[in-house]
Specification:
722 residues, alpha/beta, Rossmann fold, six-stranded mixed β-sheet, five-stranded antiparallel β-sheet
Amino acid sequence: MIHISQKTLDDLEFDAVTAQVAAYAVTNLGKTQLQQLVPFESQNEAVERLNLVHEFVSSFANDNRIPNHGFDDITKELKLLDIENNFLEIEQFRKIASLSKTTNILLKFFKKFQEYYPLLFEISERLEKTNLVSNEIESVVDKYGDIRNDASETLYAIRKSIQSVRTKINTSFNSALSHYNSADYLDEIRETVMENRRVLAVKAMYRRKVKGSILGASKTGSIVYIEPETTHQHQRDLNNLEFEETEEIKRILIDLTNFIREFKPLLTHYQNYLTLIDILYAKAKYANSIGAIRPNISATQKLFLKEAYHPLLLVANRNEGLKTYPQTISMTPQSRIIVISGPNAGGKSITLKAVGLLQLMIQAGLLVPVHERSKMCFFDTILSDIGDNQSIENHLSTYSYRLKQMNRFLRKCTKNTLFLIDEFGTGSDPELGGALAETFLEVFYEREAFGIITTHYSNLKLLANEMPHIQNANMLFDEKTLLPIFKLVIGQAGSSFTFEVAQKNGIPFSLINRSKKKIERGKIRFDKTIAKLQKERSKLEKTERALKQNEVKKGLEAERLETINQKAQQKLQSYQELYDSNQRLIYLGKKVQDLGDKFQQNKRKRELLAELFKLVQIENSKKEKLSNKQKKAKLKAQNQLQKEVDQKVAKIRKEKQDAKEKAAKAPPKPKHNFKVGENVRMDDGKAVGTIDKIEKGKAVVNYGLFTTTVSLERLEFVKPKK
């Protein structure tokens, strides 16, 4: 069984990922469950969920898009159904009907398109398909949220009577209004509404002459509001009918509630199903936003992350318009532990966290931003020691806290464990802490655990060099500018560049020399050797890139030469055919001339015709015999060849024309009058230096650690920072 501790989830900021995923959910239940997402306890569950999310992602590029799955939470309504003699409100019934209809639409859709969505169809087939719930509710409640007149025969009769009484009320009131208005008993406003009833606005002096019930008066007392007596009698009948209507509606809702109560288990399954669809939808949308895929899942312990991104860093950098650098890492039983070293701010911790976070994501059923050829496996335990290494609650120092963590690692570390430790061995005396860290690493190694650690300790780098299944690694730095390249290189330890970085940041050289004298000469030589190797590695990387570019250029040149050769061969063949044709025509001409001369001498017409016929037969026998189908094929091939040649010629001409137009439109680059002391950089570089000397169109540029002579045409002026 897989178990990942909360500390590991916190160390790797898994909650930040779940928050980003939850933002794509469209339902409250989906958001809540995604915010509480943790890795699955079973590998089979995780793989099944990965496959479902992968299938959902494919729907975004499919013409048969999955229908809307949104719904309102009916958890409260399901609980109310457990209470006897209780009934639901109209709006609650509408939520249930909507949920039932949405579910059945999805079930019908996946059945129709099961060829496109076999896994989603499989989970939908586990549910019962029925429209009884939505049909029954819609037979009682209309689309506006009102009880239908035909919900029952009794309700229909009551509402018909109500309509009749309201007609009588209006008729009697209009009659009284007309009568008293003609008698000039009413005020100018004539009538108004009080307590939801129409009343006459009677002048106070005539209130005794109007028969009816007084319902109020104006603030000044000049107007009295009276409901006519006949209207009042009909109003009492209306009140009785409205009471009967309310009671009948209550009875109908109770019956409907009792009917729906029988479907409570099914409605629970429906809500769980739609919540699952919402979770899959949110995971798929998140995967789409970061370019995540489902990697190959290895049955054995093997991890190959090609061009892997830290998902949180990827989103943050994209929002700020910054570039994110991918990493490629491989871990197998034969190379199961990686020791990353090198200076700070080079990306060691980010690389370590990226591996851990991607592993958590895959075990929680989330697709990951890696290359499609990547391969991942599952670990029973993921142990981490990253970030702030102090425990204020337990009054532990950094080192005590780290020892406590190591004790936990020793208890739980097995061959199915992935451990991640940042700044391994720090917190104590370098010699003693490094020795203890080395022992811990040996124990993890003996237990065949997989792991990544970052460290500055030389003894751990040496141990990685000596042990067959541990690899050294470092984050590349530019050997000139000492700026990070954010690229992980496996197979070589990294220098901390302690003194180089100090000199780059302006620390006096005299102080750096004093510092060097305070430490062992062997340590300096070791670190210097590593730094030199790292610089050589960086140069090799550049050389490799240049060789690849040259290889591409050579390939293109070879293709061009091959094309020219083919054209030359075609021309040569054409010339040969033309030469043969001309030679044959010359031969025929001479033959015909000889026959003509011979005929002129002997005048034998029959002999001439026989010779001509024989000549024609000989020439026809030399021609290639082709069927009509072969002739058409040959003609078609010739036409196709001519078409391809014409297209290539047109393309080359267009490219040349575009290049000329672009060169003509490009504004001339303004020339800068360089002076000694100005800040400059090369046109193909980022490092900034200072001009020490200018002579014969060239400048001596000082980069701090070295100087170089460069043509002024290759320099760009850099404005000093304010």
